[in-house]
Amino acid sequence: MQTIIHFANVVFKPIIDLGAAPVMLIVLTLIAWALGVKFFRALEGGIRLAIALTGISAIINILTTTYQPALTAFVKSTGIQLSITDVGWAPLATITWGSPYTLFFLLIMVLLNVGMLLLKWTNTLDVDIFDIWHISFTALMAIYFGANFWVATALIILIGALKIVNSDLMKPTFDDLLENHDNPMTTTHLNYMMNPVIMVLNKIYDLLFRWLDRFDFDSAKLNEKIGFWGSNFAIGCYLGIFIGLVGQQGIESIFTLSFTGGVCLQLFSLIGSWFIKAVEPLSQGVTDLANKHLKGRKLNIGLDWPFIAGRSEMWAAANVLAPILLLESLVLPGNHILPLGGIIAMGVTPALLVVTRGRIIRMIVIGAVEIPIFLWAGTLSAPFVTSVAKQVGAFPAGVKGGTMIAESTKEGPIEQFLAYAVGKSSTGEIKFILYAVIGLAAYCLVFWWYARQMKKRNAIYAKELAADKD
Predict the structure, then answer these.
(1) Interatomic CA distance for residues 229 and 48, integer angstroms
(2) Read out DSSP for 438-468?
(3) DSSP3 helix / strand / coil % (the chain, rounded to 5)
(4) Minimal CA–CA distance to 43: which of 307, 288, 282, 303?
(5) Residue 303, SS3?
(6) d(CA 219, CA 232)
(7) Tell me: the pLDDT tens digits for 178-215?
């Protein structure tokens, strides 16, 4: 085993170290080429995808760095200190890819995906290689808290299988949100494994707050009615003003926040469309393969989540949830993490978008209710993140040595709780064994219920599509 892991790290680690965009360029190009697409056509798709990922990352960085001073000022004005520093996702990805086990977990997930395709348990070909770090993070956290290596591997096989199934369940909703039923894109990103919890909260919302739907709005329809004032530009400006006022900023800073929000929301919409062009070569190769060898079976392509970034509701909700996240962090019992690096809540809003189908008020209300799960998970994982970051030399230079680090909106908070319970149960303590058994049973049961709800929704999509064609 150690020999295999060492060999994998020698061969693949230099490629992984290049970062998400170069890795996805290489992966998308090679897979499309292997499926019979001409090399330069395959390379074109890989370059387009790398550019799209780089663009999304740059805009998120602009939003985060521009909004952080205002949000930091708001936190300071409260006078409350929290002991865990939120460093965002990048250091966490670095420490995870720094583990010799991550490439082994990648191999396991690839074999799992291939096996599920052959058994027809899924129609999704997952090419989002870089984001395997999220599920590896879960396994490594379980090991840190005491789990056997193979127990941790079994845990992520369960999670990995469910998230691949989830990618098929979400496909019609992505088609609906993109208004494109011919696009091949879906995602196996771990942040969508919050869908079952959000679906439960959405049902509760139906019982208690359905009357709020009368105040909801669709940004596209609003734009049709009032033009510029309902556009992505304008929504971004409104939200920038809101953040500036909350942070008690001067008029110059408020203008900067407003215009930055406006341009970022508009660029998100533009860059989101780049993903469609990027996967066209791979999509054609997959289609040709399916027609030739799989009797026309339609396969989906699992990508990173940003292909849906063009939906302005996600960013509108994220910006409103930012001050809510800060407020909750200050008063939430058991929370010790100060949200900064994860303040643009990309671990939260994509799943909200899918489950609510873009109803902004629902996204904000449900998001506010689920935020404590993320904060508690960040607090729980901080000892693991801090210890491993120091071991692999990835501890942020600007953070004091005695401070613990984590991310406030890390994808997969439920999976972090499972990792903790499974890890602690390996000590043989009855309490944690019960926690692990009950947690895993509840995780699977809620997913089963959620899958049934999504299948009902997908049947409605299919009827509507058939009616449109008639």
Answers:
(1) 32
(2) HHHHHHHHHHHHHHHHHHHHHHHHHHHHHHH
(3) 75, 5, 20
(4) 282
(5) strand
(6) 8
(7) 887 777 889 999 999 999 999 999 999 989 888 877 76
